[in-house]
Amino acid sequence: MEETGLSSSHTSPRNNNGSPEPSPVGDCHQAFPKLQNDTFLRAAWGEATDYTPVWCMRQAGRYLKEFQETRAGQDFFITCRSPETCCELTLQPLRRFPLDAAIIFSDILVVPQAMGMQVAMVPGKGPSFPSPLREEQDLDRLQAPVDVDKELGYVFQAITLTRHQLAGRVPLIGFAGAPWTLMSYMVEGGGSNTMAQAKRWLYQWPEASHRLLGLLTDVLVPYLVGQVAAGAQALQLFESHAGHLGPELFSEYALPYIRDVAKRVKVGLREAGLEPVPLIIFAKDAHYALEALAQSGYEVVGIDWKVNPALARERVGKTVTLQGNLDPCALYASKEKIGRVVEQMLAAFGPQRHIANLGHGLYPDMDPAHVEAFVEAVHRHSRLLRSK
């Protein structure tokens, strides 16, 4: 695999068969390298695989010393706006581990930025909005509609560059935050243990809440379609704050927009002449909505470590692939223990329609050698499981 540090000239995005598609990120006509390992994509589509594919949320992260060196002293969102740096950070874990997919380095909060909100990443604190949405009339401050090619073109450029630099080794995943999760950040002004301000909107201003969720959906759809046009081969939608909603609020303020994103993205891909890509929904702590998520238009449903995989499979049936769900803290265990818990996890999911992952992202203090042990244990034990 080539090292990054390339110029910012980019080739034209392709559909997944390598044919040219119109795009905002380039006018050249060079096909992407042929994909060599499609195990992740086949599992996502529900096809049989020889082993269980594996990748990790936050696999490009601070637990890697090379990640810290690349990002040293640089503002987080300046990093996100550099296609070359995002490409480099995306590739770093692939150089260490035999992962079956890459996920573009970016952040879900680039969407609120595209809508005119200021966001800073404060070291030791996380995202901070200096002027969050406090009253319903604050919606008038948002930029809508959004020209995603203009406001988010740097993400498309990073995806295109990374597809080429991957040289076909594994597929590249694009992503975005789901409407409710983005709304919660925009109203709270950052992270929150309760999401009380965001939920206050749902109870006090239901019409304004639906308006905001609709505005976010209207940005997310072309943004995700644009990621595929730029070279993304799968898409994951993160509903990270689903756990703050009970079944009723989730059914009214999260699920309809999750469904709408999937439906409209698939229409958008067809209208753009792009090949379909598998869609993944990861709604953390939404164990109460597994059946609904399985019928929401996504090929893959991600689950966290609080859900029993065998019970999850019973609840969703065999029409979707499941992704997950090892407790990230299991990677603090010995390598031998990691192997045992991986074996148990794989047996619970079953040998097919499963993409191995953690139940949440990797933590900054994790040992890369234990991440490697996790990846290799998935490959080893899933092959043994299929041979029985």
Distance between the termini: 35 Å
Report the major sheet.
7 strands, parallel
Topology as a string of helices (H) and strands (E) = HHHHEHEEHHEHHHEHHEHEHEHEH
Instruction: State which percent range the strand residues make up.
Output: 5-15%
> Which spans have pLDDT < 50 for at least 5 consecutive residues?
1-29
Q: Helical residue percent?
A: 40-55%
Number of strands: 9
**Order of strands across the widest beta sheet?**
1-4-5-6-7-8-9
Rg from Cα? 20 Å
Structural class: alpha/beta
Total helical elements: 16
Protein described:
There is one protein chain. The chain has 388 residues and is an alpha/beta fold. It has 16 helices and nine strands. The chain has helices at residues 39-44, 65-71, 76-80, 83-96, 110-114, 148-151, 153-166, 179-188, 196-204, 206-230, 247-253, 255-271, 290-294, 309-316, 335-349, 368-387; strands spanning 102-103, 120-122, 126-128, 172-177, 234-239, 279-283, 300-302, 321-326, 354-358. It has a seven-stranded parallel β-sheet with strand order 1-4-5-6-7-8-9. A two-stranded antiparallel sheet has the order 2-3.
